[in-house]
Automatic annotation (TrEMBL):
GO terms for biological process: isoprenoid biosynthetic process. Its cofactor is Mg(2+). It comes from Cryobacterium cryoconiti. Keywords: Magnesium, Metal-binding, Transferase. CDD domains: Trans_IPPS_HT. GO terms for molecular function: metal ion binding; prenyltransferase activity. Belongs to the FPP/GGPP synthase family. Pfam families: polyprenyl_synt. It comes from the Bacteria. This is Polyprenyl synthetase family protein.
């Protein structure tokens, strides 16, 4: 745990250092652009840094730079891997900014989302036009700026890597991740609207497809592969991390889906039942619908996606979902997915010491409480 905390501190420092180099580029154009940097700092100051940690332990899993570490785990941390891990965190921040706009989410981590911050700035300044339109447009541009910066920071790290071919493979993994999470986001908004015309028997698989491409790959699998590729991992090693990362990423998102419906706002930083207001057609909903009576299913479909849902209506939907057995089924899927992930480490080229760290992370990302 101490080494993971050290990595998180280094990632924080690398992000701060990077933003310091970009601030004068932005503010030299005009002082009224300062909010772009200030809001970037705000959205990059928090979070659990799971993606950074998976990237780092993917790198460590290859034995990169092992010197005097505990049980074969290096205490040496190279600049390229910290830059890559930090780039993933900036990419994640960009994805969250865009995701909140798409989902009309007012909050993020217990505070205003980016587009709401811009809305507030507009209102306080007495500017012309619509606060909402300005907030959305400015939020999109902030997300775009962060996306570009994630690429720049990654390139800085890869340029310092001792193995140019390994750096190219890490870049290829990052590029694939970027494409997959973008199409995964599209699949998410597609399912919110297209579910009505799809066969009931296909809704579970379609919801699972969203999980895989929107979250599982970029939250767990891709960071592991980027770190390992940067360390020069071979095909067998990368395959073991793929087999571990994908089911763990699925379990991670299944837990997140439960939190999106039942989570405590004080813990999640989002209003309780937020996914219900947004109309998310998650695996949880796909499992609940077939088990409901016709009237209960009709009520679920009618209320899901109503942004004006009252607390009482959310309570009714939560109870309906629980009584369907869908929550218990999700918990079973989480357990099975974690077991599949851990099984993939058995007999793999990954050392026992790093395997233990990956097992700790698996517990952490899938046992978050309501």
């Amino acid at each position: 745990m101490a080494q993971s905390n050290q990595v998180i501190d280094l990632v924080h420092s690398r992000i701060d250092e990077f933003l310091e180099t970009r601030q004068p580029i932005v503010t030299a154009i005009g002082a009224d652009l300062t909010p772009l940097v200030d809001f970037s700092r705000q959205f990059l100051s928090g979070g659990k840094r799971f993606r950074a940690l998976f990237c780092y332990w993917g790198w460590q899993s290859v034995g990169a730079g092992v010197t005097a570490g505990d049980a074969g785990v290096s205490t040496v941390v190279s600049e390229p891997i910290i830059s890559a891990a930090a780039a993933l965190e900036i990419f994640h921040a960009a994805a969250l900014v865009h995701d909140d706009i798409i989902d009309n989410s007012d909050t993020r981590r217990g505070a205003a989302s980016a587009h709401k911050l811009f809305e507030g700035m507009h209102g306080q300044s007495g500017w012309a036009g619509s606060q909402i339109e300005f907030g959305r447009a400015a939020g999109i541009l902030l997300g775009d700026l962060l996306l570009g910066w994630s690429d720049e920071l990654l390139d800085e790290g890869l340029a310092a890597a001792p193995d140019a071919s390994a750096a190219l493979r890490a870049r290829a993994e990052f590029n694939r991740m970027r494409t997959e999470v973008t199409v995964g986001q599209y699949l998410d908004i597609l399912e919110e609207r297209a579910w009505l015309t799809q066969p009931e028997a296909e809704l579970f698989d379609r919801a699972l497809r969203v999980i895989v491409f929107k979250s599982a790959k970029y939250s767990v699998q891709a960071p592991l592969l980027i770190g390992a590729a940067l360390a020069g991992a071979g095909p067998e090693h990368l395959d073991a991390l793929r087999a571990f990362g994908l089911p763990l990423g699925v379990a991670f998102q299944l837990r997140d889906d439960l939190l999106g419906v039942f989570g405590d706002a004080a813990v999640t930083g989002k209003p309780s039942g937020d996914d219900l207001r947004e109309g998310k057609r998650t695996v949880l909903i796909a499992l609940a619908r077939p088990q409901l009576s016709d009237p209960a299913r009709a009520e679920l479909d009618a209320l899901l996606g109503d942004p004006q849902l009252t607390e009482a209506q959310i309570g009714v939907l939560q109870q309906t979902i629980i009584e369907s057995g869908a929550v218990d089924r999700i918990e079973e899927l989480i357990v099975a997915s974690v077991a599949e992930a851990l099984d993939a480490l058995e007999g793999s080229p990954i050392s026992d010491a790093v395997t233990a760290k990956l097992e700790e992370l698996a517990e952490t990302v899938t046992r978050r409480t309501f």
